[in-house]
Amino acid sequence: MDLGLKGKSVLVMAASKGLGKATALQFAKEGAHVVISSRTEENLHKAVQEITEITSNNNVTFKTCDITNPVEIRELVQFAEEKNGTIDVLVNNAGGPPAGKFTDFNDEAWQQAFELNLLSFIRTIREVLPSMQKQKRGHIVNFTSSSMKQTIDNLILSNTFRAGVVGLAKSLSQELAKDNILINTIGPGRIATDRVAHLDQVRADSLGISYEEVKSSTEKTIPLGRYGEPEEFAKQAVFLCSAANTYITGQTLLIDGGLVKAL
């Protein structure tokens, strides 16, 4: 299937590794013009090199951006528009907040999680909207977590702000439909990324068992019996932002191997 992404301008946030990088790779395979960002130039340079080598797509570039800094977000969007003429697709992504319970966090920690996992999405959407509204089309996809459907123990910050992203996207789907801008939210279950490995190690340490024991125990709770691969998640993001999707907006989708039992 031709997804109609060749030559389209795509901006992927927090994309030097993990799900962001995997998603940028899939867009590059489709011939899109991709700009990726994160805070670390060295990691971005390596990611662009790898994506280019795999896809032979020479229209992949990067710019550093701290997504908690509104000025850097604005400069990033301007860079992408100058590079590719417009922005057709925005992939909102951010690293997860620290693990912990309610009593573990003070106001500063809550504020930091808010700025990282909700306000950054708001700011980036605000910056790309003029370009999308001008051309009367666009796709936005927000990466969250399975906690948007079912809370996860010891992740109260994530549980709180991921739900906020869902509310934001649902509201915006109503407001932006007149401009043919589609916005959806997707959440990973146990996908084999550094973030998930870190959380598994935190749990292992708290329980006094090995990382391997934690992973094996978790896999038994997943109907498909394994962790997902970043590529499996990324392909769904690309579909939602492609010409193949013309009527799905305001929805939430889990890529979790059947892990979450909530409706």
UniProtKB/TrEMBL annotation:
Record's keyword terms, sorted: Oxidoreductase
GO terms, molecular function: oxidoreductase activity
GO biological process, one term: bile acid metabolic process
Superkingdom of the organism of origin: Bacteria
UniProt record similarity statement: Belongs to the short-chain dehydrogenases/reductases (SDR) family.
Protein name: Dehydrogenase
Species: Ornithinibacillus halotolerans
